[in-house]
Write a structure and sequence with these properties.
Blueprint lengths: L4 H8 L8 H8 L4 E4 L4 E4 L2 H9 L3 E2 L3 H12 L4 H7 L8 H39 L2 E3 H17 L4 H8 L14 H24 L4 H12 L6 H33 L3 E3 L9 H9 L4 E6 L3 E3 L2 E3 L4 E5 H4 L32 H16 L3 E4 L4 E2 L8 E3 L1 E4 L1
Parallel strand pairs: 2-9
Antiparallel strand pairs: 1-2, 3-6, 4-13, 5-10, 6-9, 7-8, 10-13, 11-12
The chain binds protoporphyrin IX containing FE.
Length: 396
């Protein structure tokens, strides 16, 4: 497999556009699974190879705890808060620990799905009402970034001003990723400590809250010690994992819709609800790529992967694979579902909940007589979840 200039520059830079289809087409012209010899990284672009890679047991997730511990040794920064949080992120765990965490997240989310969705709908209405009263505002920071932590905060009986504060702490930059800058890791440590202390206090002061009171049972059923620190870390992990993912998906999706309608969409133009959520997610989900490292020599799509090599699986490109989708860049209700939530043993624990939550947001947005894009949209620099950091709109 030879050096491919487009592949290398593609891997180096995040794709900051609401509609990256053409960029993927250019790279795909070099192949469906590509090797960058300068970076020793495999890039997987087709849906079948991405599915195969995600289901391959010899490919492991990135060991974030090792990275934090190494950074802490090299720099003498106090990164214990991040290292502790990493032990509650199933997305960076393997083996027994992963199984237990998956069971914990699965049980908690299934048990509290109705409460979360009802809180999410209330939050969505309130945030959109405020935007409308102001004639519009920043959809990114005043809606998309806030909705998940607001819903989690509501089910934990957290007061509105503290929920607004939580939204500023939950973004994933410096917490998840493989090539994090030291400054963003330091910044993330402070945010994680603050969130952890906040949940610690919430757990102590909300004895009447059923959801918090029942958490211990979920820990026990998952075979994990139900101590106070573990509960606070679990709630922090839940808030962080759903934060930027939901925010990016909503803001990129609305951006894409508005671009398709030349910056102005009315209730009458809103696409049909049939398969709207699936296609919205296929084309606009926030996680572009997931990383894996070969734990032993293995194969993907007839390519030999050596032990230690990194495999970068581009879910967003896979979701626009022309061999899997008739008109990959376009909305089409007949398309099969995408792999934006991953597949295999790490597939998203929040998938069912998120599909329903996104449906609620889309329904609420479709009720406005008009949504207009204003000047000044900008992308966040984070490489894990793509999202708008600023997205001014007018709502009527
Ligand atoms: C549109 C929003 C979302 C997207 C696009 C998304 C996407 C993903 C993807 C691609 C993975 C797999 C990563 C991998 O294989 O390395 C994942 C894992 C995960 N997601 Fe989501 N997610 C979203 C929302 C949420 C929400 C709201 C929650 C929680 C409330 C959540 C919880 C999790 C958890 C716990 C995992 C780890 C599963 C494991 O490693 O076993 N996600 N998500």
């Amino acid at each position: 497999m030879s050096f491919k200039p487009t592949t290398d520059s593609f891997i180096r830079r995040p794709i900051n556009t609401a509609d990256p289809g053409r960029v993927y087409d250019n790279v795909r012209a070099e192949g469906d699974i590509l090797w960058s010899s300068s970076m020793r990284i495999w890039l997987v672009l087709s849906k079948s190879a991405a599915t195969e890679a995600l289901r391959n047991r010899d490919l492991h997730t990135f060991n974030l705890s090792n990275l934090y511990n190494r950074l802490a040794r090299q720099t003498e920064y106090q990164l214990e808060a991040l290292a502790h949080l990493a032990t509650f992120l199933p997305i960076v765990q393997e083996g027994e620990r992963h199984k237990k965490l998956r069971s914990l997240f699965g049980r908690f989310l299934a048990d509290n799905q109705d409460a979360y969705l009802s809180a999410y709908a209330q939050s969505s209405r309130e945030l959109l009402d405020t935007l409308k009263e102001n004639g519009g505002g920043d959809f990114a920071t005043e809606y998309a970034d806030r909705i998940h932590s607001d819903a989690i905060g509501r089910i934990c009986d957290i007061a509105p001003e503290r929920r607004a504060w939580m939204a500023q702490k939950t973004f994933a930059e410096g917490i998840l990723g493989v090539d994090m800058h030291l400054s963003s890791v330091q910044n993330a440590t402070i945010r994680v400590r603050e969130l952890f202390s906040h949940y610690d206090e919430v757990l102590r002061s909300s004895a009447e809250n059923d959801i918090l009171a029942n958490m211990g049972q979920h820990f026990e059923a998952a075979g994990m010690p139900a101590d106070h620190d573990s509960k606070a870390s679990f709630l922090t992990a839940l808030t962080v994992l759903g934060g930027d993912t939901t925010a990016g998906t909503l803001s990129l999706g609305l951006g894409r819709l508005l671009d398709a309608f030349e910056g102005r969409i009315s209730a009458q133009q809103w696409p049909d609800q049939k398969n709207l959520v699936e296609e919205f997610l296929r084309l606009s989900a926030a996680i572009q790529t997931v990383y894996r490292v070969a734990n032993k020599p293995t194969m993907i799509a007839d390519q030999n992967i050596a032990k230690g090599e990194t495999v970068l699986i581009n879910l967003s490109a896979a979701n626009r694979d022309p061999t899997a989708y008739e008109c990959p860049h376009q909305f089409n209700e007949n398309h099969q579902a995408g792999i934006q939530f991953g597949t295999g043993r790490h597939f998203c624990s929040g998938m069912t909940l998120t599909r329903k939550a996104v449906a609620i947001s889309l329904e609420h947005l479709s009720e406005f007589s008009e949504i207009v894009a204003r000047e000044g949209r900008s992308f966040s620099e984070d490489r894990i979840a793509t999202k708008y950091s600023k997205f001014p709109i007018t709502l009527e």
